[in-house]
Amino acid sequence: MPAYVTTSDILVTAKNKLKGLSGLDDATILSSIEEVETSIRNYCHFRPVEKMPMGIRFVWANMSVDLVRYETAKAKADAGPEDEADVSTTNLTSIKIGDTQLGFSANGNGSSASTAIKSHTANLDDLLMNYKEQLKCFRHPI
Q1: Distance between CA atoms of 137 and 117, rounded to whole angstroms?
Q2: Cβ neighbour number for residue 71 with a 10 Å cutoff
Q3: Residue 95 parent element (H or E)
Q4: Triad 33, 39, 43: Cα angle to 5°
Q5: What angle do CA 126, 127, 133 make, to 5 degrees?
Q6: Total number of domains in the chain
Q7: What's the whole-model pTM score?
Q8: Which of 41, 48, 77, 134 sits CB 3.0–4.6 Å from 113 for a disulfide?
Q9: Alpha helices per DSSP H over the chain
Q10: 52-111 tens-digit pLDDT
Q11: Structural domain harbouring 127
């Protein structure tokens, strides 16, 4: 077994973990893998020519899978409902019974994007921090 992991190794692992999601091509997954690699390199202070150690394989793959799932859910939420509107009562601001009037806030906490995601924010740095403890052992001192 090699001592280093490559993006193609991560692609194989990520594709196995993403089997349930449809409509994903290798280029989409690879883009997320490369984006996560950059964040890991920055956090761990890896030089650009330095190879990624084999021990970081599943951390890198899981971060990439989380990013792909986030971006997929975000794309679905941004596309909006196809046939019928999905109304959330978390955005409900007022009810008027005579003449039946309902008021909804446009900027409520229950947006379709946050409802679809529930685990991560759009910021890749926040995703990185969810794996901070696992990445600490690979981090080089400055």
Answers
A1: 29
A2: 16
A3: strand 92-96
A4: 140
A5: 95
A6: 1
A7: 0.67
A8: 77
A9: 7-17, 26-44, 57-79, 112-117, 124-130, 132-135
A10: 999 999 999 999 999 998 888 888 877 766 544 555 555 656 666 766 666 666 655 544
A11: 4-138
SS3 54: helix
In contact, 124 and 36? CB cutoff 8 Å: yes
Instruction: Please identify which residue in the block is written with the tokens 């994007």.
Output: 113
Q: Which amino acid is at 101?
A: Q
Is residue 57 a contact partner of residue 5, using CB atoms and an 8 Å limit? Answer: yes
Report the candidate in 141, 121, 138 with the shortest Cα–Cα distance to residue 60.
138
Phi, psi of 21 (to 5 degrees): -90, 130
Burial of 141 (0-12, 13-18, 19+ CB in 10 A): exposed
Length of the chain, in residues: 142
Chain mean position to CA 29: 11
